[in-house]
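input
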Amino acid sequence: MFRPTAERSEDGTAYRDIAAILESFPANIAYLDRDLVYRFVNSQYETLFGRRRQDIVGCHVQDVLGPSGYAVAGPRLRHALAGEVHSYDAEFQFPDRPPCWLAVHYIPDHGADGTVRGLFVFAVDISRRRRAESDLQRAEVRFRTLYEHAPIGIGYYDREGRVVQLNHHSAAELGVGVGDLIGRTLGEILGSEIAAPFEARMREVLASGVAQEHLDEVVLPAGPRWFLSNYAAMPGADGTFAGVQVVSRDITALKRAEQEAREGDLRLR
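output
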């Protein structure tokens, strides 16, 4: 293992060979002595801080990380100096640099007598990954908000026809809470006779993978309603269809308007 304070071979090749290996690593690498003074940094570490190696080596870690960065790293460095490997992810605000997220690992360097004589620092910039995760989380929140408050019914059913997910609009149409419907089949919710054609469609969609659209009149607790529904098979992790998503739009008002228009036409004849 590379130790800047260790004895080198007479011609210095061992030192140079290991230093060259550390230079090739796709990570920011440094070595700190027990006093947390830099004794080695690779070129990626230089780039991370925008400082030359000679401006880092010999400096205390606090002078390089700055007050904000040292507030994050200091307690963890002291923990590693006690002899234990320490790893963490954190956002750093270094002097004169934009904020960045780093995955950091501190590895104690034990001497022959077992005491810790320094630390190896391995840090990988994960800012891009964290931004992607943050963007994904925000997208999930937006989707969940849209899903829950959409003025249409949205439901997801497993291969056995049990409700896996249902938005509030769908539950309100049925006159019950979402929690009362999860895990139940349409037969258990609507009755086997009313549910039979809907369950048959879901089986067909699962078998063929072809989406279907249907117009139905359904008798609900609030009275008969007309729904235009789309059925689509949803793939699972193994590539097979794991369930069916049903999106239903209540078009009762439209159907009533059509009926009134037809009746009006008849009266005019």
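quick obs: The two ends are 99 Å apart (CA to CA).
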